[in-house]
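CO-FOLDING WORKSHEET

Operator: S.A.
Ligand of interest: adenosine-5'-triphosphate
Run index: 237
Mode: holo prediction, single chain
Checklist:
[x] sequence pasted
[x] SMILES validated
[ ] output reviewed
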Amino acid sequence: MDGEKKSIITVKNLRKVYHPGNETVVALDRINLEIHRGEICSIFGTSGSGKSTFLNQLAGLEKPTEGEVLIGGVSISRLSEDDLARFRQRYFGFIFQAYNLIPTMNAIENVAAPLMFQGIDRQVREKLARKLLKDVGLGERMMHYPREMSGGQQQRVGIARALIAKPKIIFADEPTGNLDTKNTKEVMELICDFAKEYKSTVILVTHDPEMAQFATRIVTLIDGNIKSDEIKNGEEK
Ligand SMILES: Nc1ncnc2c1ncn2[C@@H]1O[C@H](COP(=O)(O)OP(=O)(O)OP(=O)(O)O)[C@@H](O)[C@H]1O
Ligand SMILES: [Mg+2]
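OUTPUT RECEIVED:
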């Protein structure tokens, strides 16, 4: 580990309150946190502890009630919706529990999709997509549509898609929630290996203690508060 840790995400006094019906739910209660470049940071906790709410805040998918989130020094909480959408496209990759592939697109087209939004030529983006699909072990499944693939295969497509634009931060909310033990391990290893190769930071939401162990850091939430923050030794080589 070299001593120099660069901050990539800064969370300041972050509070999120929902008002369903006439109730008040404090989903996040003034959270402060600094996440460093290259960390694989697991947001861990039981159901309802605020994990998804926290991820949505870090990724700028919802506005905070109070406080702010800074990514590389930019307060994303203050960006306009258009600027935020561009920021997300440029710097973030997302991996979802339900894979969220486009059913009418084959594996190559799904993986290449984020580059389409960046206006990159079809040939260029599909060449990159092919390479990534090979890297995630799907060289034989390039022309398959999502319905023609297993859950584990679909999630590999999801990983390749999240990586294609070389994101600075990968957000994954229960990415192995629908997979068996063997696939869970393989998918987690893929995410972690690629994160290292691409020098990406990973925010991994999970309620599963075994999944959390893949991370270099485990931030545990209880009722919208940070209960513990454990940084593992030797996380960075
Ligand atoms: N859009 C919303 N409107 C109202 N309440 C919400 C909303 N989203 C989340 N909550 C509430 O905020 C709290 C935290 O929810 P959150 O989805 O972040 O939990 P979680 O840790 O991701 O749980 P799970 O492991 O079940 O996915 C819960 O009490 C939930 O009911
Ligand atoms: Mg959740």
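REVIEW:
The radius of gyration is 18 Å.
DSSP finds seven helices and ten strands in the chain.
[x] output reviewed
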